[in-house]
Write a structure and sequence with these properties.
47% helix; mainly alpha; 4% strand; DNA polymerase, domain 1; globular
Length: 435
């Protein structure tokens, strides 16, 4: 194989998931009197025999009738809520609630950002978006915004069904979407009849007169992507289930449970409350928890500079897509710039990293401005950023040399900080005047 061919393959597989699971991990529970090796074959993760953990590579459906599996979910949204609630504890007089559970889920203004941007006090032209859910979990992706744009939801129950569409496989695109828009039949199918979560199937069939056990088995078959047996299809026809519904069930490969969808939507709505009513706190927490790439030059310059940087980034992404190249860092930068554009359109400002005011990873609020953290600087990781704030807590930096000696900053980072004007107020060295 030539180097050129190898480079092409490398480009195609870069960014591809290295594991087959949907979650960071899972636990299979077995009775105490049974050894795991009696049940399934095991191996060490990545063939590392020194690892404390062992893994299995059996598909769960091989033993699901006898054993319990627990998925371990990785989720940053609870971290966002936790940090947002710190502001509630710090400034209780600013909020109409004290506990996380009391954040309203049916606030009309909050619900409106799922179908427009007007509640944010901006226009679609200013933020380059029709929907106000940029930075809101579950509804921040292109697919999520496309569904919101098509459906224009106004209720929590509609959002839960949309969440189900997004998490399912072969549920929305080429299936429910075409039915809802009227592309499959002569008439549009009412939104309430669409299949969003696995529970929708069972409830619909029971309402049609199908007995509960049969309805449950049909739901299980469809949600696992096993389609319908001839007998199951006959049962549906006998209970006057329309053909479009039967055909739709046959296309589905996986369906999300409504309980999960409801939990995710509740989290999204609570975070959205802060975005609408306490935007500065929201932006500060979002960029701390989810900000994975920053444009340290454009963001402090304001709206126009951010808009231009976003345009350049999107053009680069279009070129990457033509070459089937995946750039995770570029995607993260586009997410950051999109939300930064919205923040500046709403009248907020980003300020350059400041040796005296910036924190390691959190954004510092001052008036209507947010100071970027040290971790926003290129090549500055969490450890280096923390070394700066820890050294500063001992005493202020007296010179560039002092900064370099007391932190883990490299010469390259120092040069970049000079270029950005962060070190303009510091002398190069500490000079002692003897006379």
């Amino acid at each position: 194989m030539s180097k050129t061919e190898m480079d092409i393959i490398i480009e195609k597989i870069t960014g591809v998931k290295r594991t087959t699971g949907q979650h960071p991990g899972g636990i299979v529970v077995i009775p105490k009197n049974i050894d795991y090796s009696d049940v399934v074959a095991i191996q060490y993760p990545s063939d590392n025999v020194d690892s404390d953990w062992k893994t299995i590579h059996y598909e769960y459906d091989k033993y699901e009738k006898n054993l319990l599996k627990l998925d371990l979910l990785g989720h940053r949204d609870p971290t966002m809520i936790s940090k947002l609630m710190e502001y509630v504890e710090r400034y209780p007089e600013e909020f109409p609630f004290k506990e996380y559970e009391d954040i309203p889920l049916n606030d009309p203004k909050v619900l409106s950002i799922f179908n427009s941007v007007s509640a944010l006090g901006v226009t679609a032209e200013e933020v380059l978006e029709q929907i106000g859910t940029t930075g809101i979990p579950e509804f921040n992706t292109p697919l999520g915004k496309e569904m919101l744009s098509d459906i224009k939801p106004k209720t929590v129950s509609e959002l839960i069904k949309i969440s189900g569409f997004g998490h399912g496989t072969n549920v929305w695109s080429g299936n429910q979407r075409e039915l809802y828009l009227g592309n499959t039949l002569n008439n549009k199918v009412d939104f309430d009849l669409l299949i969003g979560c696995r529970d929708d199937i069972m409830l619909y069939l029971v309402n049609k007169g199908v007995d509960s056990l049969t309805a449950f088995k049909i739901m299980e078959s469809v949600r696992k992507g096993r389609s319908l047996t001839t007998k199951q299809e006959q049962v549906l026809q006998e209970h006057n289930v329309p053909e479009w519904y039967i055909d739709s069930c046959k296309k589905i490969a996986y369906m999300f449970p409504k309980a999960h969808a409801a939990a995710y939507v509740m989290m999204a709505l609570r975070i959205a409350w802060f975005k609408v009513y306490k935007p500065l706190y929201y932006y500060a927490v979002y960029f701390e928890v989810r900000g994975e790439a920053f444009d340290i030059e454009a963001m402090p310059l304001g709206y126009e500079a951010i808009r231009e940087a976003l345009k350049v980034a999107n053009l680069e992404k279009e070129e990457n897509q033509k070459r089937r190249k995946i750039d995770v860092k570029l995607d993260a930068l586009i997410d950051t710039l999109s939300l930064a554009l919205e923040a500046t359109a709403r009248g907020f400002k980003f300020k350059q990293v400041d040796l005296d005011k910036s924190e390691a990873s959190a954004l510092t609020i001052e008036g209507n401005s947010l100071y970027l953290p040290f971790s926003a600087l290129p090549s500055v990781g969490a450890t280096t950023a923390l070394s700066i704030t820890e050294a500063r807590s001992e005493r202020r930096f007296s010179s560039v040399s002092d900064l370099r000696q007391r932190t883990k900053i490299s010469k390259t980072i120092i040069d970049h900080m000079r270029k950005l004007g962060i070190l303009d107020h510091l002398p190069k060295d500490d000079q002692i005047n003897l006379f």
